[in-house]
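Example record for the data management plan.
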Amino acid sequence: MSASDRNAVPERLSVPPLGYGAANVGNLFRPLTDDEAWAVLDAAWESGIRFFDTAPHYGLGLSERRLGAFLQTKPRDEYVLSTKAGRLLRPNPDHAGGLDTANDFHVPDDLQRVWDFSAEGVRVSVEESRERLGIERIDLLYLHDPERHDLDLALAEALPAMEQLRAEGEVTAIGIGSMVSEALAAAVRSADLDLIMVAGRYTLLEQPAAVDVLPACRETGTGIVAASVFNSGLLASSEPRRDGRYEYGQLPDELWDRLVRIAAVCADHGVPLPAAAIQFPLQSDVVRSVVVGGSRPAQLQQNAEYAALEIPTGLWENLASDGLIPRLNHPSSELPVV
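Corresponding structural encoding:
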């Protein structure tokens, strides 16, 4: 299908501008009781969030089970649900009573993740997610982190299999989720995807996806769901900390300097840094939604307020003039500033 043909096709799935990423209710970084996880999800719902994202990877299925149990109490047509394929959960023969903390999840490691990008593996993943969720209809299916296993195999087998599932009506929309721009752009150009999840690659702090991913999405009519918009928590407070975690290591000096400058501009406009972080991706014409996490009800309530906060256009203009973000009104110039 040509780019012009695809752009003429109505979107298969409309997603709300703010979603909740349910990794935390899979006990990411710290354990939650079932009641605590329910309270987080309830806070998201009461705050108006109607888009929920999960994955088998999150807590070895715990996130899907908890999210599914919660959403079963809500009218099915009132929310959008996404999950992911690519990792099957199978018994761990080496389980000796330990936890899955090597993957940052505080759950028993009685299961293990098994990569499977085959057509059958993708289909089985959907079936098993449905069982864990207790919900038949999955609105959006992503292929999860394909570059971590075999990107070529993902492009050749997994994505065509997902296109087939969509054609059969098994899912409404398909895409991939990744934090690697090259993988995202390759997938967008090789398959008929609806929405992709760009994790940490198009944020207020850094925009490497603007080089290749956003142009590819613009050409093909593919929408973007922006995730990890707080850059591992660096943008989650109006007063960033120098010792904050950046992805898998320490924050580089050049990014710290950018962060300090961005925070100062936000302060000058009276805008909380986290509010700017949530709303920045949505200024792009190809970004449809921002998905945020959270392990406490107050975090969900605050993020919903930040998403609704009115931000003066002068903030974006000042950030662009200072070379801290692209000039948002001109897609052709939507390039990251080094």
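Summary line stored alongside the record: Residues 326 and 334 are 5 Å apart (CA to CA).
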